Amino acid sequence: MMRQEDRLIERLRRYGASDFYPFHMPGHKRNPAIGSEYTNPFEIDITEIQGFDNLHHPEGILKESMEWAASVYGADRTYYLINGSSCGILAAICGTTGCGGTILMARNCHKAAYNGVFLNHLKARYVYPQVIENLGIQGGILPEDVDKLLRDHEDIEAVLIVSPTYDGIVSDVEGIAQVVHRYGKPLIVDEAHGAHFSFGTDFPVSALEKGADVVVQSLHKTLPCFTQTALLHVKGDLVSHKEIERYLRVFQSSSPSYVFMAGIENCIYHMDREGRGEMGKFHCSLMNLRAELGAMKHLTLVDERWIGKYGVYDLDPSKIVISVGKTALTGADLDRILREKYHLEMEMCCADHVVAITSLGDRTDGLKRLAQALLETDRGLTDRAEDRALESSMEWSGRVTSRPEVEMTVFEGISGEKEPVAVEDSVGRIAGEFVYIYPPGIPIVAPGEMLLPSLVHTIWEYQKMGLSVQGMEDPSGKTIKVIKR
């Protein structure tokens, strides 16, 4: 029998009352000053009753609300998503490609994009982000790389990129859109981490203003809204609204939460009014934080010096990305220090860096704690010794974005007959399941791809570092499903 103190709600209450500070989503940051005017959510939790419309067939208040939201963002259509950005990505992919068709997608897409490829039986062509030297962090997508692939593969029906990335790297969306439109194809941008761009003049410009045809944004990631709330915007005449709507009815719950939908509307309403001024103050706080972190001697803050290099068109300053490349630490080590010693919870850690998500929900004391913790940690470090036994994590990052040998489609890889083999014995076999670190959920290897020696070594090293390697059916991570010979 479950004890009262072990219930999830009780553990959440205890955690919420602790001094652990969130440098992760959701963007409201559990700030008690946000949403304090609202009461018990049960009081507004209803179903599709008279006068409150139906998200899957909007004719009244929800139709008017989404039309108003589209006017705020400058979209032709805006759709409220209560199943997160994932359902928007799925609808965008399936709504712009035919079953069995071909999509050009960035290799650093979230796993939701690969699920869309699987569901629509698509052949995926990949465009690869640059890798920022000496940091092991992925850069941007180059328009010329997109152009070459579209020129070489006439069967491509749509193009999907991620901008900004989890690390806040923004690609040249306008340049990519111009290339894609020359071929008469639609551009889908996963802007899940850029929902705040439209409200702050000191932040990068949203993909919607840069020519993208479909843009998916997660309100909950960087704005004060509930987890699982997002938006899908459509602009231009290259995408069928009816097809997008048809797939949204498939991928969204048939019982959409009115609490979530009211939260979405209220978030946009706030951001379009007081929020614009708040974003200016937030940016000032970020610049002060970044100036303080510039004093670090061993840890490296990813900053604007990389703009114009490695495909980095712009940088989201709200993502505080700290590279450990010059030290003997791994990203997992730094993440653990910040959590255990300073009670600061990061959004994610990789082999070579950690990411802190900041938002206008952050409090001054939280930003101050982050600065003090990183500066104090930095003072206790030295630069990495030349004879460091561990192989450079920069090389691991390059491997994750190396060009895999695609032997079959994702659908064929997932649906084919499989057998488990030890990870160390899987070299040369074809993967039958995903392997990724979550977050961010970008596949190290996808079903249907050859398990190259470098990729197998990367999986093994990530596991040894204690990173959250997921996707494999074996919970121990010792075996991986491969296509049976």
Please provide a written account of the structure.
The chain has 485 residues and is α/β, with parallel strands linked by helices. It has three domains: 41-272, Type I PLP-dependent aspartate aminotransferase-like (Major domain) (Aspartate Aminotransferase, domain 2); 280-379, Aspartate Aminotransferase, domain 1 (Alpha-Beta Complex), CATH 3.90.1150; 404-483, Alpha-Beta Complex (Ornithine Decarboxylase, Chain A, domain 4), CATH 3.90.100. Helix content is 34%, strand content 17%. It has 15 helices and 22 strands. A hairpin with a 4-residue loop joins β19 and β20. The longest helix is centred in the middle third of the chain and has 20 residues, at 274-293. The relative contact order is 0.13.
In short:
The protein is about 35% helix and about 15% strand. The protein has about 475 residues and is α/β, with parallel strands linked by helices.
Summed up, the domain count is 3
CATH fold name of the largest domain: Aspartate Aminotransferase, domain 2
> At CATH's second level, what is the architecture of the largest domain?
3-Layer(aba) Sandwich
Strand order of the largest sheet: 2-11-10-9-7-3-4
The count of β-strands is 22
In this structure, how is the largest beta sheet organized? 7 strands, mixed
Shape summary: globular
How far is the first residue's CA from the last residue's CA? 46 Å
What is the H level of CATH, i.e. the homologous superfamily of the largest domain?
Type I PLP-dependent aspartate aminotransferase-like (Major domain)
Specify Rg, calculated over alpha carbons.
22 Å
The top level CATH class name of the largest domain: Alpha Beta
Q: Overall mean pLDDT score? A: 93
Number of helices: 15
Q: Which parts are unreliable, with pLDDT below 50 for 5 consecutive residues or more?
A: 386-400
Strand content: 15-25%
Classify the helix fraction into a percent range.
25-40%
Counting helices, strands and paired strands, the structural category is alpha/beta
